[in-house]
Write a structure and sequence with these properties.
3 helices
Length: 61
């Protein structure tokens, strides 16, 4: 009886854990740009979008 209790766990291990959904950083405006108007990490590998005009056009409507 105790073995049937652990079978679902064994099945889950075989399937593997789901991969976390990654954010679409290139579509998300950088917080530094929102707050300060610029990002000091833009040229150093900041993964977020720094184009203010692209994202403002969506919110003006």
């Amino acid at each position: 009886m105790a073995t049937s209790r652990y079978q679902p766990a064994d099945l889950r291990r075989q399937i593997g854990s789901p991969r976390p959904k990654g954010r679409e950083n290139k579509d998300t405006l950088c917080r530094n740009v929102l707050i300060y108007g610029h990002c000091r990490y833009e040229d150093q590998g900041c993964a977020f979008s720094h184009d203010q005009n692209k994202n403002n056009s969506n919110s003006e409507t």
